[in-house]
User: Fold these one by one.
Assistant:
Number 1:
Amino acid sequence: MSPRAASRLESIGFEQVYDYVAGKADWGSAGLPLEGQNGSETRASAHVREDVPTCRLDDRLHDVCEQLDESGWDTCFVVDDQRVVLGRIGRRAIRGRADVSAEQGMTSGPSTIRPSARLHDVVERMRRQNLTNLPVTTSEGQLVGLLLREDAERAVADAERTR
Amino acid sequence: MPTAVDRARLRQLLREDAQLVEVLPRAEYRDEHLRGAINIPLKELDAKTTRQLKRTQPVVVYCHDYT
């Protein structure tokens, strides 16, 4: 649709016309703000915990666990230089504290959601799959943070109360 | 011919005071839109409805995605 609109604008006489072809789906999936009745406040991006711990592939699992003990978190995401999610250190690996690298201790390819995911849909999925949280990544795979089910459920309940 | 831009280039254009136009129907614009965007649905795009746009500044159009 937007290519036709761009061409139409040129036919009207506009000379500097650009077409953001990936559109608002791309904008929202990068965690950038959207306004409107179902804008960013109703999306995962507004409620994500951005302070979730991260580590690198070659970090030692034991060191990662010690840092987690101090932070109070019970999970950690293994990311690369661009903050792209490579894996997740889960509770089982943390309990085991094996003398291995994060790469050896992680679960590869964790399931993720986009920042633009609608909270209502995410809560339904979390309940259906019995999930307590879901990592939020951009469309390029970069970690935004962790969405906790309790935060998402609270936000949905608040929205329904004010409707 | 209009120039296709990605997200990074769009952000740069917005810093340069580009005008942003969502060309989807009104209901979809009301549902969600980029901050600062105005709505001129494709079916209403003509010389009259575009009078609100400055011809001396860049104009960026967008819809939902590639479709």
Number 2:
Amino acid sequence: MASLPEPVERLLEAALVGELTVVNSAGRPITYPLIPLYDGDKVYLTSSTLFSRKLEHIKANPRVSVSLTDPVALGGAAGRATIQGDARIIEDDPHGGWERLLPVWEKKEPSIVTFLKARVALPLFFERALIEVTPRRVLYWADGSPARPPVVTVAGMEAA
Amino acid sequence: MRSTPELDARAGLEKLATYPFQIATWVDADGYPVSVAVEGDVDAGAGTVSFAAPAGLAVPSDRELSLTGSHIRPQPGYGYDERRHVTVWGRVSGAGRGRAARLTLAADRAWGWDESEVPFFEYSERSLGQSRKYFDALSRERGTPVKPRLSLRFLTLRTTRLPFLTATIVPVMLGILIAASHGSFDLVSAVLTVIGASFAQLAINVSNDVFDTAQGADDANVTPTQFSGGSRVIQYGLVSFRQMATLAFAFYVAAAAVGLVLLAIRGSMPLLVIGVVGIVVGLGYTAPPLKLVYRGLGEIAVAVGFGPLMLLGAYVVQTRGALRIEPFIASLPVALLVALILYVNEIPDRRGDAHAGKRTLPVRFSRTAVVGGYRATVVAAYVLVLVGVAAGWLPLPALLVLLTVPLARRVDAGLTPNYDNPYGLMSVMGVNVKLHLYVGLLLIAAYVVVLVAGAVAPGVPLFLR
């Protein structure tokens, strides 16, 4: 069952890059540009162990957001959104567990398959954890402008 | 070593000003981050960014807010490139009301990454500590060691640097063929020579990583490439230091065992001398007390080891100790070109090497001197072939090596513009490796011609003597 408003799903599916924001132990938001992947229910991102500080923050505080803001990375779409949610780290198998999302990743970044075949060149980049975000609340700006209040939706419910 | 560059607030603001919009983010009352795109006016001199208050959202002034700029360039069919991002943090204060309300962030810290400034591979290498920390934490969490992995095929390739075996195969095959052209050939000892020499090179490759790690050179290198900086399997946590040391020892033992068999079945005093010198040069390359490569003698050690020692060693196994000048002359261009592989590969390593006290030639000398040194040495390699042919020491088909001059010119032309760009230098290093291989293969081909001609048309003069 879709948990997100349809326009936000379209943005997620188009987004080459979104921004994952986590909260560190000092309460400071830290933003990481990442490729958002969507399975129709949850939002997924992956993180190499090389850049795994974000995973430490999520383990300490699972409250995160994924924002979609850059029209260039959204295929020209004008809308913008922020999805707030609870994150879970999936790291049963950092070597290959994340590869279940490879087909969705490949759609956005076809070259990743070529790089994966040559993982000998940069092996640690392909030791990865999955970040699974269960959406809780969505803020959507249809025209992308912050001059108008966002439409706020509780995930899985009608727009408020 | 931090993986992501910390920036001072002003530098962060200067970068932030280059983005068409910024993503304002704060933590809301429920503890979730909220992000909204704004168009800020950056005043890097004053250390502030002002932007219109987003409608319908309460921006707190009692906690930090961040402004992030993020950029990619989509590349259809590939993905994207031109990755860069920057985040600036600070507290906000407000002015005005309603639609006219403006907020001002006073920046106090920043961080970011721009792949045009720090290439992705270097960024990754600088982040190795974070990966180690991750696996250490996961191991503690699970109560059992969790390590990064690589398939056995890739791990073998990476650990032993197997593709570089061409440095051994070329001189050994050449030595065997020259001996055969002189009427000495024994298949069993020829095969054993190839195997033993290969074990010797694998031992040197692996022990080089062990000693470079022990002496800090590989850890200090954040710009390794597929041709330089070692295998890095220890740095990546794929193989432990102890496992690498054991593997190096095993390869040395295997090489020594094959060497002893060869001494037993084709032994001679020249072979014994070559074997002993080979062990001293091979071990002394990185190992104390000699540490030849740390003293700027690596090129000479490699030239001697993978030139005359390998070629003459293979030759005397076949001839049971009889020596001639021809194999020595043939080994010289091979020696110079294999030394140039090391020489060029040391260029991107020079900062890490200098940090570890490894005084290689590119560490010691200026760019002009290093590039000039390459040019002089590669010219010398060709001149040696020409002189060898003119003097009647080498066969006329050896002139085929002149076909590789365009490769040498490509390396020469690529060194200066890529001298400070390790990743730009990668293709140059690749061509340089090919140069040694192709010259070696063409010399081998020359002796195949000599052997075939000797069998089918013995009267055809292939030497100017």
